[in-house]
Amino acid sequence: MVFEGLSEKLQNLMKKMKGSVRVTEKDVKEMMREVKLALLEADVNFKVVKDFVNSITERAVGQSVLESLTPGQQIVKIVHEELIKLMGSVPSKLTYSPAPPTVYMMVGLQGSGKTTTTGKLANMLRKEGKRPLLVACDVYRPAAVKQLQVVGGQLNIPVFEMGTNTDPVEIAKKAVDHAKSMQFDIVIIDTAGRLHVDEELMNELKRLKETVKPHEILLVVDSMTGQDAVNVAGSFNEKLGIDGIILTKLDGDTRGGAALSTRAVTGKPIKFTGLGEKLSDLEPFYPDRMASRILGMGDVLSLIEKAQTAFDEKQAIELEKKMRTATFTLDDFLEQMQQLKNMGPLNQILGMLPGMNAKALKGVELDDKQFARTVAIIQSMTKQERNNPSILNAKRRIRIANGSGTTVTDVNRLLKQFEDMKKLMKQFSGGKGEKMMRGMGGFKMPF
Question: Helix, strand or coil for residue 43?
Answer without folding.
Answer: coil
